[in-house]
Queue: 2 jobs
Job 1
Amino acid sequence: MKNKTIGISMLLLAVISFLMGIVKISPMVSAGYEMYKTATEAISVPDRIEELKQQKSYITFEDIPDGYKEQVLKSEDKRFYYHFGFDPIATARAMVNNVIAGSFVQGGSTITQQLAKNMYFSFEKKYERKVAELFVAFHLEKDLTKDEILELYCNIAYYGEGCYGLKQAANHYYGVEPLELTITQIKALVWTIKSPNKYNPNAYKVIPV
């Protein structure tokens, strides 16, 4: 009887904790959804994609070096071709690191989420923005192939010193076209994405291995 009472108490505690978590997170989800709606009503996802593709520096998937694709996936999103725009493993790991650090130090964002952020939102570290970018990410995953998402990401990522997209970065830092990049240059540009102003090739001379 005692064990049954303890079991029921633990179950009730778990249910209460879950409900408290839902109550706490609901306003955040609501605010994030409103942020998503406001952004995509101002310019729809298809229109924003078409806007990006009209830029002079836009390059197709075939014009992105295979070595760059491999390195950016290795660095930014190892499970890119296997998730649905959200990576529970990376997110859980980031949450643990944030709790340990006592602040928002890691986001655990997938490449699709990063693309969503770069398409619509600021880099301000707010949970509402993370929710908003998730809605956009799910939209992208529904409408596009993985290769199309990766192509867009490589064309919108920021590389520091005013460079957006791989073509601008390759031209600016090395005076070459993307397909002419060496593996050392590729690694330097992939590393740049983590902190464009701090790690770009002109500011950071140590090449990651």
Job 2
Amino acid sequence: MTTGTSTSACHQEKRMSRPRALSSPYPHICPPPDDPADFTFKVLVIGDTCVGKTSFINRFSDNDFRESVAGTIGMDMKKKLIDVDGKKIRLDVWDTAGQERFRTLTTAFYRGAAGIIILYDVTNEASFNHVTNWLEDVAVNVSRDVCKVLVGNKCDFQHRRVVQKRAITLADAFEFPLFEASAKTGFNVDMAFENLAQQMLSCYQRRMSTKKILERPFSAEKLEYIAKKKTSFAICSC
């Protein structure tokens, strides 16, 4: 009886000493004692259809690339454990599974996201032009302090590139990192996810140090913010 009580107390102590997990902008559960992850974050990869979201996620999670990838049916999620500043972080990476084609992504899909990668195709100008539309969706559906990274996929197709300087201007206007990557070669794929994980960890640590949870602003306020950023983003043909 004493041994059982002691073991239970030991497990309780371990649970209390572990950092709280984070699969949303707000901490919600403590990981079990045998969980190797110190933190868990929900990450969304969004963008127009055919920009390479599924291939981008598969390259990160499985280090795999296929020239022909069937369209995702239903929700798809991949997990990967990475190390950031000595912390074990599990990323639950969600694919939009084609709903972006019909603009039917729901609040339920966005719920709990701590980080978002907005993906466009450097060879497809329309996919880049729609980035600000995706940012408006993000502004409506997630908390104000969600972490974001902009990624231009398919940078291995240099001879077909149509987007470069405008992406730099947009990233500067919205003040988030920009990476050009290739799901085919693996270039900068891990770097984009690691940068996002670092942002999410830093954001969580700041909130815990101040013991303050940021309130979700009204959608109108967030959309006004996006509109102001749009005006600072000069549209040009370069």
